[in-house]
Specification:
The protein is an alpha/beta fold and about 425 residues long. The protein contains 13 helices and 15 strands.
Length: about 425
């Protein structure tokens, strides 16, 4: 069987992020890079067809993209497709380029079985694959986000021409998400939402690798003071992610030695700045690169994720920061959400409930531990992630799923 991965990854993550005022989230890039690495580590030869992960013009300065070699970990393994990076035209030209390349691979491998592995049901990719499906190929959809009523992004308003167009695109993406042969899901609850029925799927909530393509440039040096207790959050700064809950909880903590550092972009930025203006202990860092995130993590006493179960999307979304924070070697505080598999329980520091007071109490509790106790908590969690959640181990589930499909296909042909 031939394997082709239709991806949406940065070409040069540090360079491209700096060219965008509001960069695309890095979590998707990391997941795909780990997916590609894990499949290769399990012996699969993968051809990559990649859509460069950029905002459309003028939010990214480049308009015209040409077909170009895709290089992963210094190896040529596919192609970055060409397209016109303007609103609407980006969807159309990406679809045309993908369809052309997909048909080319199908023609070149006419006597082979081909499996296309796609990420997150992006409309141009899904449409191109549906055309290819007429040529008797297998489609495996790796779904990290759902759309419409199951979506993580709840702040998008479907009003006006742009809103209505976005709504139609979401509806089409949901429709196409139900037409694949197999699935990789972040949570088991996604299967019901997608109405997968009897089609095969496997749950892979995420994966972590220290070798993801992040250069971690030496841009900043963050001094660590023994008498300062840094609490650090990095990610989407959105109300639906519990940012105001974190700000309220921190306001309940007394002591000039506590600091709250928040990095990222989203609809709660103004709220963060308002709290920071009233409390000098709070710092808003803006959008920082993954390399900078790692440096702030190292200077922190504890990492925190304030997401609560208030919104229904929690069932269908596993926070990627769970793995990154647990792998940092620092204690990690987060709420006990339904999306968290039971095996994570010994490693996440859960507050008693989702109230502001309970979160504040847990922060104080962890920060009051000795450095040795905090290091022991962090190291135990780090070993769990590196051992159990590395790309090779997690992607073994996907390879087993693919092998099972191949066996069934051979049995049907015989």
């Amino acid at each position: 069987m031939k394997y082709i991965f239709c991806s949406m990854m940065y070409c040069d993550i540090d360079r491209d992020m700096k060219k965008m005022k509001t960069p695309q989230p890095v979590s998707g890039h990391k997941f795909q890079a780990n997916l590609l690495r894990g499949l290769k580590d399990n012996g699969l030869e993968i051809m990559v067809v990649n859509i460069p992960l950029v905002r459309y013009f003028p939010h990214f300065s480049k308009i015209f993209f040409k077909d170009k070699e895709y290089i992963f970990e210094n190896n040529r393994c596919g192609i970055n497709i060409g397209f016109v990076n303007l609103p609407i035209l980006n969807y159309i030209t990406q679809f045309i380029s993908l369809k052309r390349i997909i048909y080319k691979y199908i023609r070149e491998n006419a006597n082979e079985t081909i499996m296309f592995i796609s990420y997150n049901n992006y409309l141009p990719i899904s449409l191109a694959l549906m055309y290819g499906k007429k040529k008797d190929i297998f489609l495996c959809n790796v779904i990290a986000d759902l759309y419409g009523k199951f979506a993580v992004s709840l702040t998008h308003r479907n009003d006006g021409i742009v809103g209505k167009l976005r709504e139609k695109i979401d509806e089409k993406q949901n429709e196409l998400s139900n037409q694949h042969d197999a699935y990789v899901l972040l949570t088991k609850y996604m299967a019901d939402a997608l109405e997968i029925n009897d089609r095969p799927y496997v749950v892979v909530e995420g994966m972590y690798s220290e070798n993801v393509e992040i250069k971690g440039e030496e841009i900043i040096t963050i001094p660590k003071k023994d008498d300062i207790r840094n609490i650090f959050y990095a990610g989407a700064v959105g109300l639906q992610y519990g940012l105001e809950h974190l700000l309220r909880a921190f306001s309940l903590i007394e002591g000039d030695d506590y600091r709250l550092q928040i990095a990222g972009n989203g609809d709660a930025v103004d709220r963060v700045k308002k709290y920071a203006a009233l409390d000098k202990r709070i710092t808003y860092l803006g959008y920082i690169t993954p390399g900078e995130v790692e440096k702030y993590q190292k200077s922190a006493i504890v990492l925190v994720n304030p997401r609560t179960s208030e919104y229904g999307f929690v069932k269908y979304s596993f926070p990627s920061k769970n793995m990154e924070c647990l792998a940092s070697g620092k204690p990690y505080i987060a709420h006990d959400l339904i999306c968290n598999p039971e095996e994570y329980r010994p490693y996440i520091q859960y507050p008693m409930d989702e109230s502001d007071g309970a979160l504040a109490k847990k922060i104080i509790e962890v920060c009051s531990l000795s450095e040795e106790e905090r290091n022991a908590i962090g190291e135990k969690a780090r070993r769990f992630i590196l051992t159990e959640k590395n790309p090779k181990t997690q992607c073994k589930k996907i390879v087993d799923l693919i092998n099972h499909m191949e066996e069934n296909n051979e049995s049907t042909e015989n």
